[in-house]
Design brief:
Layout lengths: L1 H21 L5 E2 L4 E2 L8 H6 L1 H12 L4 H14 L5 E2 L2 E4 L2 E4 L6 H18 L4 E7 L15 H8 L5 E3 L23 H11 L11 E8 L2 H6 L6 E7 L7 E4 L4 E3 L23 E5 L8 E6 L2 H5 L9 E5 L20 E7 H4 L7
Parallel strand pairs: 6-7, 6-15, 13-14, 13-15
Antiparallel strand pairs: 1-2, 3-4, 4-5, 8-9, 10-11, 10-12, 12-14
Amino acid sequence: MKRTILISFFLLIVSVMLLSVIMTDETISVCERRQLKEFPEFTWEELLAGDYALKVESYLLDHMPFRENFRSFKAWSESNVFAKTDINDIYMEDGHLFKMQYPYKPEMSEKFVEYIESVTDKYFENNNVYVGVVPDKNYYSFNGYLKLNYKHMIDTVKRGEYQYIELFDTLSLNSYYKTDLHWKQETLWPVVRRLSDTLGFDMKVGPADYTINTYEAFYGAYAGQSTRNTEADVLTFLSLSYFDELKVMNYEKASEISIYNKEHLSNLDAYDVFLSGACALLEIENPNASSDMELVIFRDSFGSSITPLLIDSYSKIIMIDTRYFPYEYLGQFIEFNAGQDVLFLYSTLVINNSIMLR
């Protein structure tokens, strides 16, 4: 019996090794939405330091035969055999996937306020400055999982020298994708109206004026991380007839882009259809704007999908993401003026890790 087990185990190891050699390496993991490790280039320095072995190990783990099948089986066994309610820190409630965001780091909320005040002192002493906080979808979950201390976070943010805009009551769980962390653009009209009331811009167009475009096979970040079988979300993006006339300058790539890039719908993250995804600095000029007002938005990825709903009210919107470069360099690219509205719009996920804001 022992001999049979040893032989079977040996044959399994040999089979896996042979399959690793025979099978073509994948370059990306669609489920995990990331690039897979490439086989490392050999150097004596890395070998002697022990780094080369670690890189090879990472490569082998990424390219193990039937890796996705093993990931799915692991998730199934954790849920159905060991009765775990969360897998990879992701749990399901009412068809929505949530990722536990814990613990709360109060020092990060304080650092966030310091960050805003530093930026304001440098560039916007004579501007109207507003701050809005986008709750992560866990705020609307009621199953008892550990959450951030939202009250303490907001109380801390409110202490700053700017006008705070309450957004928590303009959203609900249905404002978010079921398989992703982001909010759905078509549900953001209460947020836009709240911003309009506070910043003082007119909404000359409303939901009925927009053309509805849909992509019905959107699987968000949480779908792959949880390895659960989930239904796809419908990703909706709204457009006005003149959107093709907008001038959208991507300073990172030194080129113009479209406000919606449909090529991203077939890429790893379809949410990047909004303004082509992450970018340190964007400038949108609207020759058909209903006013000559200008807006500066300091934002994270949530800002990508709400900005198209604001552009009709502004002749220019400057979008800044200082997760990718220090704010001290902004003056080299952008000329700010006292007539611009300034909005800091960040999710609780970024605020709780505000050390990433540079």
